[in-house]
Specification:
Low-confidence stretches: 212-218, 313-329
Number of strands: 10
CATH architecture of the largest domain: 2-Layer Sandwich
CATH topology of the largest domain: BirA Bifunctional Protein, domain 2
Largest sheet: 6 strands, antiparallel
Radius of gyration: 29 Å
CATH class of the largest domain: Alpha Beta
Order of helices and strands: EHEHEHHEEHEEEEHHHHE
Mean pLDDT: 79
Length: 329
């Protein structure tokens, strides 16, 4: 097995905050996770627990928010990707062979150093808890991790739960924003470099190769340009559709026959009405085509926006390789 330590991070919206709480503190009586050996749960330790008695992550968040520890608009409705991430979880997974050779005291020292490095890097972030699990087997899901970690072997690891806080210089206050926490070019790579230099070197871990992101950045710039162009086209179409709708209403009003149908002018009125209906039908067909084009552009914008967001933030559940010989995504 490679001499590797990884750190994963994942954001949680309000409605899903209970899941990491239940997992980290083993609150469920009938735990469905078959990877957990309940006979070893007593070996789990809390390096940090800033929850007051009886609190959950949600109630602790509410307490801090209401007390003014940080500010920010909290979006809790709509699409999940648009909602505010109330928590950011870091999963620290050291190499199984390395951590298993350590005594419990040595393990505690290692995890405390990892935690301190995370706290130093994100100095405004509020840590709610840091829990070490020694009762759970690791079953890698992707092929890369399967090549790095032993299947089904219990490996001590740490869950760090934090509120993603950043300092807003303009407003001179702390605010919640997981996006700004990870903003900037190569934000993950810089974090990996820092963790390696701060902790990895001391424990003999390897930093690993780095991908050349130049092509990815160029691709992202092209996608962003196409998105802007699509948005311009959409705005133009919406204005044109609105204009056409107004035009249709005016034509219907202007072309309405004034003659009253009688036995003497029935044919004339019907011919005129037929012409009106045909003209309106043609305009409606044109309008339908515009609407179809608008829908297509709207979907294009949505797809490109999601692509840019995914590439720029590498997703909220991105796997961060702190130190490894494999290529880092």
């Amino acid at each position: 097995m490679a001499n590797v330590c990884i750190v994963r991070h994942q954001g949680y919206i309000k409605s899903k905050m209970r899941f990491p709480y239940q997992h980290n503190f083993r609150t469920l009586k009938n735990y469905g996770n078959k990877n957990i050996d309940a006979s070893l749960t007593n070996l789990n330790t809390d390096i940090v627990n800033n929850l007051k008695e009886g609190e959950t992550y949600l109630t602790a968040f509410n307490r801090l928010y209401q007390n003014g520890a940080f500010k920010g608009q909290l979006k809790v409705q709509g699409a999940e990707e648009k909602q505010t991430k109330f928590l950011d979880e870091f999963l620290v997974y050291p190499p199984s062979e390395k951590i298993s050779e350590m005594s419990l005291e040595e393990q505690e020292v290692f995890f405390k150093k990892e935690l301190q490095a995370i706290k130093n890097y994100f100095s405004d972030m509020i840590i709610l808890s840091a829990t070490v699990h020694r009762d759970e087997a690791f079953h890698p899901k992707d092929e890369e991790l399967k090549a790095l970690f032993p299947e089904g072997k219990i490996t001590p690891h740490m869950h760090v739960i934090a509120i993603p806080i950043v300092y807003d210089k303009k407003k001179d206050c702390k605010k919640i924003s997981i996006t700004e926490l990870w903003k900037g070019q190569f934000s993950y790579r810089k974090f990996q470099d820092y963790m390696y230099n701060t902790v990895g070197k001391e424990y003999g871990f390897n930093r690993g190769e780095k991908h050349d992101f130049c092509e990815a950045e160029k691709h992202l710039e092209v996608q962003a340009f196409k998105l802007k162009e699509a948005e311009k086209s959409l705005n133009k179409l919406e204005a044109e559709i609105k204009k056409k709708e107004q035009s249709l209403a005016e034509q219907a009003k202007d072309l309405e026959p004034e003659e009253h149908i009688s036995i003497f002018n029935t044919k004339k009125v019907m011919e005129k009405q037929k012409a009106i209906n045909y003209a309106l039908k043609m305009e409606k067909n044109k309008n339908a085509l515009l609407l179809k084009e608008k829908d297509g552009l709207t979907q294009t914008i949505k797809d490109k926006d999601e692509l840019i967001l995914a590439q720029n933030h590498e997703s909220s559940a991105h796997t961060v390789h702190i130190s490894m010989q494999q290529k880092i995504p």
